[in-house]
Amino acid sequence: MAEETQGTPESSPQTTDRKPNNNNRNNNRKPNNNNRKPNNNQNRNSNNSDGKPSGNKPNNNNKNKNRNRHRRQPTPVDENLKTFVQKNQEAHKQRLNPHYKLDLNSTAKIRITPLGGLGEIGGNITVFETEKEAILVDIGMSFPDEDMHGVDILVPDFSYLREIKDKIVAVIITHAHEDHIGAMPYLYKEMQFPIYATPLPLAMIGNKFDEHHIKEHRKYFNPIVKREIYEIGNDFKIEWMHMTHSILDSSSLAITTDAGTVIHTGDFKIDHSPVDGYTADLHRLAYYGDKGVLCLLSDSTNSYNTLPTPSELSVAPALDRVFAKAEGRVILSTFSSNIHRVQQAIQYGVKYGRKVCVIGRSMERNIEIAMQYDYVRFNKNIFIDADEVGRYSDKEVLIVTTGSQGEANSALFRMSIGEHRHVKIKPTDLIVLSSRAIPGNEGSISGMLNHLQRAGAKVHRSKDIHVSGHASMEEQKLMLRLVNPKFFLPVHGEYNHVMQHKETGMICGVPERNILLMTDGEQIEVAPKYMRKVKTVKTGKTYIDNQNNHQIDDDIILDRQKLASDGIVMMVIQVDGQHSKMQAKPKVTTFGIVADKQDKAFAKEMEDVIEHFLLHLKDGMLENTRALENDLRQIVRKHIYRKMKKYPLIVPHVLVS
Ligand SMILES: [Zn+2]
To answer: Radius of gyration of the chain from Cα atoms?
Structure first.
């Protein structure tokens, strides 16, 4: 066999055998090599038909006879090894496509409806439904735009939940960030279901319930243990898997129904050296991935970041440097929920002999909870109260506080404008902002920095003192490869984040037809054989005023927007019903339309408009004051628009006598 095939490579194994030889020749024959590749088959064919070598092969032989002969020595093929190559190829196929393990004959399906969190950052709430039951994953809030005057937070519209209320068997929480639990009190004031979560999210929800005077709803708490599988309702089996994120005690979920397992990552990053040593439970993700996962919903927030998200521990050296150099007080501000950041700041403060003063309601509360429930341990005597700060020398003080987003009611902001009761900014103070600006907050942060620097303080906010809590592209790839889903729903992020995550999904082997980009309210049906959009349900936002925790109706916000952008005109007109004439000059009051000094001229102008209007009144109009006021409003509106290109609120009062 060896001799026969020597000059006539015809079967495919020999073709593959030849490849390495080709490569060996590269040095002296590169150009020919390239030319030859496509010709290989032709050469072989002509060899077969003529029974003798043709093409450029003889040339080869002539040029380098000995070496060539040596080169042509075929390596004997071990047929047994060949079968194992095939077996391994098959093993790879099975490993990479475990979806054959899904029951394709099953008629079971699951419906997934995001009611918030898509096309936006925040307000996360997702409904998972079988035929008879539903669970809600996370009930989050979001922050208003600047033109939503007097609105503190936004809560998702619960209309769809009212519709399916009787199907809902539980609320499932992934982690304790506001955009995942912030709307809980608002939902629970209206309807209640058992709540399943790990202890920290439950403790924080409990606090919210207390604040909203619905303490009694704590009875719905069902604390869970990670890695155990909970049967919830008749249709759901759920496991919480530990995840690393910018808040303690975060989880991904494995939600199993008759249709298969859906993995919901929640918010995550993959931190291999988290501060508490509790790494992401990659093993459980891999376990489900190996069993065959129907669908993956994964966090898209940082889908553009090509560099891996650094470990939380990576801020430690920068913190150390800050404290080593600081001459006076250090005032450090970060997200109050990022307990690991606070913990590291406190550790380095203590290392350099400082006492710790925690200022800001949410910061105090979160540290308290973290200590109460043994998530972090500090010696209690390192803490001092705000009114004790003055008793220590500046070098002995670390103030940890809220306000890293420049929020007007935060402790740091009040310090910056000299309105904090206990802490006045000094020129020797070092302000450390250990956070990033949430998009939309840049203006208020900049404003606060101006105040702080005007007060003489130094501000430190370099990049190395903050890391993100969300997975970047490479970690998203790891998640996709571990879970190996048949279908993929990139979630949590604006449209462009989700879109980029889709690309990453395709790179990681999910076919494009198996990926859907959802928007809020779109209901997706997933079954072992297919995934499709089935309908759209009502979504939206409810405006909340934090001062009283009450809802603000939409029309109030619209009025406020109008007032803010276009102002208001009020007119009181007394009309003689007999003669359709004004009995006195109208009283005209405006805000936000003309300058005070032009008030009189404007009132005169209105008087003319009203006079003209009364002159052309239809008969009987004076009897219907409401219609009269409406008509007058239209006339004034047109007039003002023509002159000022503004649509103010117009409030006419016509008194007919
Ligand atoms: Zn989060």
So the answer is: 35
Alpha carbon of 435 to ligand 1 centroid (Å) = 14
Whole-angstrom Cα distance, residue 273 to residue 290? 25
Q: Compute, in angstroms, the gap from residue 247 CA to the centroid of ligand 1.
A: 7
pLDDT digits (tens, 9 = 90+) for 220-271: 999 999 999 999 999 999 999 999 999 999 999 999 999 999 999 999 999 9
183 CA to centre of ligand 1 in angstroms: 14
State how far the Cα of 581 lies from the Cα of 604, in Å rounded to an integer. Answer: 16
How would you list the strands of the sheet with 530-536, edge to edge? 221-223, 195-197, 168-172, 134-137, 125-129, 110-116, 522-527, 530-536
CA of 181 to the centre of ligand 1 (A): 10
Gap from CA of 348 to ligand 1 centroid (Å):
25
**How far apart, in whole angstroms, are the C-alpha atoms of residue 547 and residue 234?**
41
3-state secondary structure 414-434: HHHCCCCCCCCCCCCCEEEEC
For residue range 306-317, list pLDDT tens digits in order: 999 999 999 999
Give the model's pLDDT for residue 17: 37
Angle at 513 between CA 512 and CA 517, to 5 degrees: 75
Q: How far is the centre of ligand 1, averaged over its atoms, from the C-alpha of 507 (Å)?
A: 26
- Count CA atoms within 13 Å of residue 297 on its CB side: 29
Q: Give 146 Cα–ligand 1 centroid separation in angstroms.
A: 23
**How far apart are alpha carbons 535 and 558 in whole angstroms?**
29
pLDDT tier at 64, thresholds 50, 70, 90? low
Is pLDDT larger for residue 14 or for residue 638? Answer: 638
Burial tier of 91 (Cβ tally within 10 Å: 0-12, 13-18, 19+): exposed
User: What's the length of the chain?
Assistant: 657
Q: How far is the CA of 394 from the centre of ligand 1 (A)?
A: 35
Can you tell me which residue has the tokens 């859907």? 516
Give the 3-state secondary structure of residue 276. Answer: coil
Residue 338 CA to ligand 1 centre (angstroms): 10
How far apart are the CA of 229 and the centre of ligand 1, in A? Answer: 23
Q: Which amino acid is at 282?
A: L
- Rounded to whole angstroms, the Cα distance separating 69 from 201 reads 74
Distance 527 CA to ligand 1 centre (A): 29
